[in-house]
Specification:
Elements lengths: L2 E4 L6 H18 L3 E7 L10 E7 L6 E3 L1 H15 L10 H19 L4 H7 L4 H9 L4 H11 L1 H19 L7
Parallel strand pairs: 1-2
Antiparallel strand pairs: 2-3, 3-4
Length: about 180
């Protein structure tokens, strides 16, 4: 559907180019529309703050400053075309409730400017519920895609857990005992 590269250090055109160059093999291999997204700018709730974005694939565009409300419809359109208008598996009421609880808590932390380490540490009590969502679904990849599409805070938390799992698997972080 799309590749979004979140680049917290992309604060000027040169740094955007650094990310574009480093990610080039990845996005050309995947052949997905790709944006490099800099950090949120300004003050206020994170969901209301714009970010500079550079579309690098398949056609390069100039850096644009966009609010989430402007960018999300672009991603929604790509998702609709990718799925040929078909929706994924419909989550159960319990799955929606769990995802919503995780989403609400993560969005609250994001609104208050918490970083990913803080969110990871403070939301540890919700990890069993997140794991249950993964284990209780025969179509877990499609279910997770659907829940992440509906809940931006849930998506953010999922990405944090994915990053931590990768760091543990690579040995960069020692697994808790």
């Amino acid at each position: 559907m799309a590749l979004l590269v979140f680049a917290p250090d992309a604060t000027d055109p040169g740094r955007f180019e650094d990310y574009a160059r480093k990610m080039y093999p990845e996005y050309t291999h995947l052949n997905l529309p790709t944006w490099i997204i800099g950090p949120a700018l300004g003050d206020g709730p994170l969901m209301d703050r714009p970010a500079d974005m550079l579309k690098v694939w398949p056609a390069r565009e100039p850096i644009r400053r966009m609010h989430p409300a402007e960018f999300n419809p672009i991603v929604d359109e790509l998702a609709a075309r990718h799925c040929n208008g078909k929706t994924g598996p419909q989550p159960t009421a319990e799955q929606l409730k769990l995802a919503s609880e995780i989403d609400t808590k993560a969005r609250e932390f994001l609104r208050n400017g918490a970083n990913d380490i803080t969110i990871f540490a403070e939301m540890g009590d919700l990890m069993p519920e997140f794991k249950r969502l993964l284990l209780d679904s025969p179509n877990r990849d499609k279910l997770m895609d659907e829940l992440c599409h509906r809940h931006v805070g849930f998506l953010h938390y999922a990405k944090i857990l994915e990053t931590m799992a990768g760091a543990i698997a690579s040995g960069d972080i020692e697994a808790p005992k």
